[in-house]
Write a structure and sequence with these properties.
The protein is of the alpha/beta class and about 300 residues long. The protein folds into two domains: about 150 residues, Rossmann fold, CATH 3.40.50.10490; about 120 residues, Rossmann fold, CATH 3.40.50.10490. A five-stranded parallel β-sheet has the order 2-1-3-4-5, with helices on both faces. A four-stranded parallel β-sheet has the order 7-6-8-9, with helices on both faces. Helix 12 links the parallel strand 8 and strand 9. Helix 10 runs parallel beside helix 13. The longest helix is centred in the C-terminal third of the chain and has 18 residues. The mean pLDDT is about 95.
């Protein structure tokens, strides 16, 4: 039996992202199952999927496609006259998502975006968008989440060529040991990248048990910047508010911002999280206290 190297699954999966994004961008029939322009929509998920839901909701609404809300599945308000509810889940077995879809059956159209095509959610939703090529063995998600967001972006008419090229360049770049070895990380975003910031913080915590925080960029100056100090990192996804870089630099912390597609910058974070975990003797394929899917006892 071949010995499992720490993070081997995560490494293979995160490096496959340019290819899985390209496949998702070509899934026109699957994209057509998503809510049509003008529909009032809620997007739900748990953990990583909730953060991707936040990004999709912002992109869809600002694209003029219709009012779009994002909720954690356990905290959702779905009795608001929605035309459809999109449930995003890698495993299709998460308790909160299954219970929510069952409650909505016959009342609101449900669309599942699912990694495991054998999961129970497939038969519960009205329409299933299946992404088995993006499913993962690692407990820590990388490619399923970003591939789902790539699918959403393509469905809104975005050309993902630049994002795919940027991700490939990130994967080919030299490693940044200083970024890997920081004491603390604060991740920031604006608009649709707020969800990416929250996901980056979660990914680093899950993978390497690190101290991370995340905020909308403009909110960072309302208190959280107090944590910035030498040896710490403030990482902006996408365009930063004017003057923020200089304010962070003045604290002695490192301000990180890359002029690439923000989703590709999340791939960079995946690399940093994996390298940090392995350097600490951890295995992000089997992180502490976590399982692939949260299934609650009845």
């Amino acid at each position: 039996m071949t010995e499992h190297l720490p993070g081997a699954h995560m490494r293979e999966e995160l490096t496959s992202q340019p290819d899985t994004w390209a496949r998702a961008a070509d899934l026109r029939d699957a994209q057509a199952l998503l809510p049509a322009s003008g529909a009032r929509v809620a997007v739900v998920g748990c953990g990583t999927s909730w953060f991707m839901a936040q990004s999709y909701a912002f992109l869809r609404e600002t694209a003029g496609q219709g009012e779009t809300d994002a909720f954690a599945a356990s905290e959702s308000f779905t009795d608001r006259g929605y035309d459809a509810v999109v449930a995003l889940t890698r495993s299709g077995t998460t308790t909160e998502v299954l219970e929510l879809v069952e409650r909505l059956s016959g009342r609101v159209r449900t669309i599942g975006v699912i990694g495991d095509e054998t999961s129970p959610l497939v038969s519960l939703v009205d329409d299933a968008v299946l992404l088995p090529f993006a499913d993962e063995k690692s407990v820590v998600q990388t490619r399923f989440a970003t591939t789902a967001l790539a699918l959403f972006r393509a469905s809104l008419g975005e050309d993902l060529t630049g994002a795919i090229d940027d991700a490939a360049a990130v994967l080919a770049a030299e490693y940044d040991d200083e970024l890997r070895d920081a004491e603390q990380y604060s991740f920031l975003g604006r608009g649709w990248t707020v969800g990416l910031a929250h996901e980056a913080a979660l990914k680093m915590r899950e993978s390497s048990q690190s101290w991370t925080e995340s905020y909308p960029s403009m909110e960072y100056r309302h208190g959280p910047i107090a944590i910035a100090a030498p040896g710490r990192v403030t990482w902006q996804f996408g365009e930063a508010p004017e003057g923020l870089a200089a304010q962070v630099d003045a604290t002695g912390a490192r301000f990180v911002q890359h002029p690439i597609d923000p989703l590709a910058d999340l791939v960079r974070l995946h690399r940093v999280a994996l390298d940090r975990a392995v350097a600490r003797g951890l295995d992000p394929d089997q992180p502490r206290n976590l399982t692939r899917s949260v299934i609650l006892d009845a």
